[in-house]
Design brief:
mainly beta, four-stranded antiparallel beta sheet, single chain, 2 domains, three-stranded antiparallel beta sheet
Amino acid sequence: MRLNSAPEDFILLHPLDPYKDLGDYTVYQKDLHFLFCKTCGMRCFILMGQGEVTEVDLEALGVKSDGETQGYNVDGKKLTKVWRPSKDSWKEGKKFGSYLSVNGYSVDAGQEGFDLREITEKKWVGYLDWLELKSEGSQGTRFDRPWEGGAY
C-alpha cells in the first residue's frame, strides 16, 4: 500500500531503528530496502529514504497507547517515541530518493477502524498488472480486484 504522505501517514512503534532491528534485503544500488521480520520472514515495508525518531501523542492520532509512554509535554499530553520517515528530507518518488510501500498483510489485525476490505470496497487502492507491465499485453490499473497473480 502506498500512502498519500509517508512522513504524515506512517509511524512505526517498534522497532525504533528499522534499518538495524529488521532484516534488510537491498537491491540494485542498495538504496531500496525491503525490510522484513527476522523471526517469521514477512516483508513489512519497502523503504527508500531517511527516517527519524520523534515523539507523538498516539491518542491524538486515534491509537490506543500500550502503556509505553515515554513522557509528557508542556500541555500534559502523553508522548511516545516512534520512528517515521523524515519530513525534512522526504521528496516523494523513487527517482528523488524517497519511497514507502507498506505490506497490508503485516498490519496488526483487529484494530478498531482498520479493515483491509474497506480499502478495496472504496477503491482507495489501485491494482497494477505487474505480470504484463513491461509488455504490450499490460492492462494497466484497476480498482475493483487484483489482476492474475496479485493479492488483495
